[in-house]
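Figure 6 in text form: structure in, sequence out.
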């Protein structure tokens, strides 16, 4: 009998990974931290355009720029550490990305649906975008029986129209109306 591949615990969770995914994890950390550095750099530039007042000698953008600069340094140090780890590991087996995408298809689908929701709120208005999002999310999560569908519909209507009513009439905060509002 052959023994299984040696296992190692990852730093970011308690899951155990095999040799095949260690390089992929290091690569994913490089990509994520690189994206965060790019995001923080864009925010750093935008923070410089904040209006200043005569009571703030450093300007309104100085504190956000300090924090964003520190965050960029932290992400760059993580990238340096992960780069060393990435180069030390052997290449992963073919098909690893496809298996990973299949394994996390529900989470990725929910993220895509949420991105559509964010785009849809200004176009459709809060009520219709929220109603659509909640119904589609329930369907994606496996609601199929008539009773479950009815409960999902009540939840979607309550949260989309109820939250709009709460903000509009109680808090007096206008949410996006859309073309039908």
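Output sequence:
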């Amino acid at each position: 009998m052959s023994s299984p591949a040696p296992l190692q615990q990852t730093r970011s969770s308690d899951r155990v990974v095999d040799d095949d995914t260690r390089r992929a994890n290091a690569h994913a950390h490089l990509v994520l931290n690189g994206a965060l550095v790019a995001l923080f750099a864009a925010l750093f530039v935008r923070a410089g355009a904040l209006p200043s007042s005569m009571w703030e000698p450093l300007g309104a953008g100085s504190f956000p720029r300090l924090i964003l600069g520190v965050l960029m340094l932290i992400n760059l140090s993580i990238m340096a550490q992960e780069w060393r780890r990435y180069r030390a590991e052997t290449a992963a087996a073919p098909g690893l990305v496809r298996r990973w995408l299949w394994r996390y298809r529900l989470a990725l689908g929910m993220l895509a649906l949420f991105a559509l929701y964010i785009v849809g709120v200004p176009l459709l208005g809060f009520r219709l975008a929220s109603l659509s999002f909640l119904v589609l999310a329930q369907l994606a999560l496996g609601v199929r029986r008539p009773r479950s569908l009815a409960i999902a519909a009540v939840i979607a209507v309550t949260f989309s129209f109820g939250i709009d009513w709460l903000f509009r009439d109680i808090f007096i905060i206008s949410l996006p109306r859309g073309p039908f509002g």
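Caption detail: DSSP finds six helices and two strands in the chain.
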